[in-house]
Structure formats: structure tokens, C-alpha cells
């Protein structure tokens, strides 16, 4: 764990903190081969990759209604209620994001402009699975798609060793409103949803996190299907002052670290005393956590940095562009106003990243590796497209005529100019 004054961080150390190399180039060729194979050989290729990577022979990729019913009946009713409670919060938050379906404005007499919002027709969700399972990710991806009005939402998730999907993942799919679920993972699942096979329908867009092979596949199929954004190892950056609780901050760092050996946790604070207290608490909690080996590996990527001012903290945060940003300072509004780049923001001692991971209602599918500089976290707009509308009367066109003709002719597009003139009695001739 790097422990330094921010101004003393070397150029090499800063580059390492900010770069977060994705490694996508290292797997691009392998992924390209898989995608090409799936595009050409479809289900035959999928069965071979399932045999190769999952060590399974599946009679059918699609989860049956009987499997759904069995999953729902096997879940503890209390746990199912918690799943439904989280789903309700996620649904409510995303319903609040819904745009006007159609709106108009009168620019000037005879010129009415507007916009129409239309949901995508089909969306594919990738939910990591296999040895681990993430029902929360199913809720976070399927619910906003359905709230947006997407007609068909399918889910692909890797099967367990016995060929089944974890019952809580299937229960989440039902609660969220997924239309179909397929036992399929890896780059081949992305290819199947992008190109379509005999079994897997082609979709307009693919969303959801995955490993480096899944992310590479998503980046490579954008000529046939859109994606949400690239995703890499999870990360948190915490800005804190004396008002923060060292035990709470340390627990958030440990929570982040247990995700993955490559997960990143960074604290930047204006209090050297707090920094020292948090470092001691992190080391203590890391020895007590169940996923100790993962946490300790992840803490190799961690950093505790002290700054001279909140402005310096804000500047570093904007350069880092974290997936998750926790603001634990007495003047949180000041810090929030200065933040330009962050996937999701958590304010106060009682707003840990974990609440957004599961149940507050905000979305946990977020840009990582600095992509928060150019991408938003998953939201309703990822599942919508917008068409502009214009209703122009003759009076309205009259007011625009000279401007349009002048610009069109300057661009050498006489027919464009003539399309305006013909509406006022002109007939083109040689």
C-alpha cells in the first residue's frame, strides 16, 4: 500500500495510479478469433466453447420455465423479499430518469421543433457467473431496460459446474422482468448476442460487466451492436477530512479490496492523523476478513495520500476519474461542486459504496479505469434513442429560406438550395 504525501508522489508512481492498464490488447486476437467463429458457426461454436471453457455438454442453452420455478421455490422467502425490495428501489430511481416521450417547442411562427424518445427494441445483458454469481447485476441491468420500455431483454450468464444457473440469479431475472435467460458466458456470449445464432437472438445493445475477454468482445462488436461502456477492475476513491470515521473508511477500503486482486482503493485526505489511523485500521481489518488472500493482493494496488487542501484532493480525483467516489468531509457541497469525473458519488459517513452496489436504487454498472471522464454510469438513456422532429409551415420556411439557400450554395449543393426554391414556385432547369 502506497502511503505518501500527494506532492511527494513520483512521476512513475502517479502514472501507475492514473493509468490502470486494461490489458485489452493482450487478449484482442484471441477474442477476435472467438467472435469470428461464433459469427460463422453459431450454435455449433457455442457448444464447443462451452465444452472447452465450462467443461459442460448442454442440451439447451436457454433456461426453462421449470428451472425458473424451481429456483424461485428454493429461495428463502425473506431473501426473496429483500431482492424485491432492492428491485423496487432500483425501479423507482430509474423511473425518475424517464424523459418526456415527445415534446415540441415553437422556435418562431411557423417553426415547431421537437423530440421523440423511443426505447431500443432489444437488449442483451451479460451477468458474470460460474464460480461467483451476481443477482444484483441482473437487477441493475434488466430493470432500467424494462423501465425504458425495451421489448426484449435477454440475459447471458455462465453456468455453474453442474450446468445450472444459481437460483438467486434466476430469481433476480424474474423479479427484474427479463424475457429470456441463457446459460452462456465469455466472449462467445457477447458474440452470440451481437450476431445472433440459431438459439440466441441478435440484440441492438449489450450491457453489463465482465472479465477482460468479455470487455474486449464488447469493444470489438460495436459495428453490429452498441454497448454501454468498457469495464475493468472495480475501484473506489475516498476524499476525507477530520470528520470522517477511520473505522468506517477502512471498512470501505476492505470492502472494495475483497472484489478482486486487481481492485483499487485510494484514500486522499487533508489530515495526516486520519491517514495514519486509517492505515492501521486497514491492516487490522485485512487480517480479520474472510477473503484475506484476495484483500491483501488488492491492497498492493491501494494508496493512502495526504494533501495540503481539499482543492488538491478534488484535482487528484478528477484526474483519477473513479468508478466510485466517496466524499467524507464536513463541507461536502464544496467538494461535490468541484467534481467533474466520477461514475457514482457517495456523500457522508453513512453512504458507503455498498449501498449503491445493492439497494439504494442507483446503478452499480459504472465506468472504470478513468472512463468516467467520457462515459456515464448505466441509466435510462442507455436504453433510449432520440429522434428530432420539425414541423415547418410555409411562413416558417419563408423566414429560413435565404439562410438555407446561401449556405447550401456556398457548400456547392445547388439541388439542396433548389429544394427550398421549389416550394416558392421555382422549377429547376438546365
Q: Which strand order spans the largest sheet, edge to edge or round the barrel?
A: 1-11-10-9-12-13
Number of helical elements: 17
Beta-strand content estimate? 15-25%
Give the CA-based shape.
globular
What fraction, in percent, of the residue positions are helical? 40-55%
CATH topology of the largest domain: Rossmann fold
**Main pleated-sheet profile:** 6 strands, parallel
| CATH architectural name of the largest domain | 3-Layer(aba) Sandwich
Q: Round the Cα radius of gyration to an integer and report it.
A: 26 Å
Class computed from helices, strands and strand pairing: alpha/beta
Detailed description of the structure:
With 430 residues, this protein is an alpha/beta fold. The chain folds into 3 domains: 2-22 and 232-361, Nitrogenase molybdenum iron protein domain (Rossmann fold), CATH 3.40.50.1980; 24-227, Nitrogenase molybdenum iron protein domain (Rossmann fold), CATH 3.40.50.1980; 394-430, no CATH class. Helix content is 46%, strand content 17%. The strands form 3 sheets. The protein has a 6-stranded parallel β-sheet with strand order 1-11-10-9-12-13, sandwiched between helices. Strands 6-5-4-7-8 form a 5-stranded parallel β-sheet, with helices on both faces. The chain has a 3-stranded antiparallel β-sheet with strand order 2-3-14. Helix 14 (332-338) links the parallel strand 12 and strand 13 (344-347). Helix 2 packs across helix 8 (186-195). It is globular and about 85 Å long. The model has no long low-confidence stretch (mean pLDDT 96).
Amino acid at each position: 500500500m502506497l502511503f505518501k504525501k500527494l506532492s511527494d508522489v513520483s512521476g512513475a508512481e502517479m502514472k501507475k495510479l492514473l493509468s490502470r492498464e486494461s490489458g485489452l490488447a493482450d487478449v484482442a486476437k484471441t477474442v477476435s478469433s472467438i467472435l469470428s467463429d461464433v459469427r460463422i458457426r453459431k450454435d455449433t461454436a457455442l457448444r464447443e466453447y462451452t465444452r472447452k471453457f465450462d467443461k459442460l455438454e448442454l442440451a439447451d442453452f436457454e433456461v426453462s420455465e421449470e428451472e425458473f420455478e424451481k429456483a424461485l421455490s428454493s429461495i428463502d422467502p425473506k431473501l426473496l423479499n429483500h431482492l424485491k425490495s432492492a428491485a423496487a428501489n432500483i425501479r423507482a430511481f430509474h423511473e425518475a430518469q424517464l424523459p418526456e416521450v415527445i415534446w415540441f417547442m415553437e422556435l418562431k411562427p411557423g417553426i415547431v421543433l421537437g423530440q421523440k424518445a423511443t426505447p431500443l427494441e432489444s437488449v442483451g445483458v451479460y451477468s458474470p457467473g460460474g464460480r461467483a454469481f451476481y443477482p444484483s447485476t441482473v437487477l441493475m441491468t434488466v430493470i432500467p431496460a424494462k423501465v425504458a420500455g425495451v421489448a426484449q431483454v435477454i440475459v447471458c450468464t455462465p453456468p455453474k459446474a453442474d450446468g445450472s444457473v444459481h437460483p438467486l440469479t434466476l430469481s433476480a431475472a424474474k423479479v427484474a422482468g427479463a424475457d429470456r435467460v441463457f446459460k452462456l458466458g465469455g466472449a462467445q456470449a457477447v458474440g452470440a448476442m451481437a450476431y445472433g445464432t440459431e438459439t440466441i437472438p441478435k440484440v441492438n445493445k449489450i450491457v453489463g460487466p465482465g472479465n477482460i475477454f468479455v470487455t474486449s468482445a464488447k469493444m470489438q462488436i460495436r459495428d453490429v451492436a452498441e454497448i454501454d461502456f468498457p469495464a475493468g477492475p472495480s475501484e473506489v476513491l475516498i476524499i476525507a477530512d477530520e470528520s470522517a470515521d477511520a473505522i468506517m473508511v477502512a471498512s470501505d477500503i476492505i470492502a472494495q479490496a475483497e472484489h478482486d486482486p486487481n481492485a483499487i482503493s485510494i484514500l486522499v485526505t487533508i489530515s495526516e492523523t486520519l491517514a495514519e489511523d486509517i492505515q492501521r485500521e486497514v491492516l487490522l481489518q485485512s487480517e480479520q476478513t474472510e477473503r484475506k488472500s484476495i484483500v491483501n493482493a488488492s491492497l498492493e494496488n491501494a494508496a493512502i495520500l495526504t494533501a495540503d487542501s481539499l482543492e488538491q484532493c478534488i484535482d487528484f480525483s478528477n484526474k483519477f476519474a473513479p468508478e466510485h467516489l466517496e466524499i467524507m468531509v464536513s463541507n461536502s457541497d464544496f467538494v461535490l461542486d468541484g467534481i467533474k469525473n466520477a461514475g457514482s458519488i457517495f456523500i457522508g459517513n453513512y453512504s458507503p459504496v455498498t449501498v449503491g452496489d445493492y439497494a439504494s436504487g442507483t446503478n452499480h454498472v459504472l465506468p472504470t479505469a478513468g472512463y468516467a471522464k467520457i462515459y456515464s454510469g448505466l441509466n435510462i438513456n442507455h436504453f433510449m434513442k432520440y429522434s428530432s422532429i420539425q414541423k415547418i409551415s410555409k411562413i416558417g420556411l419563408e423566414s429560413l429560406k435565404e439562410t438555407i439557400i446561401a449556405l447550401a450554395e456556398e457548400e456547392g449543393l445547388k439541388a439542396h438550395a433548389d429544394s427550398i426554391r421549389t416550394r416558392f414556385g421555382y422549377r429547376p432547369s438546365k
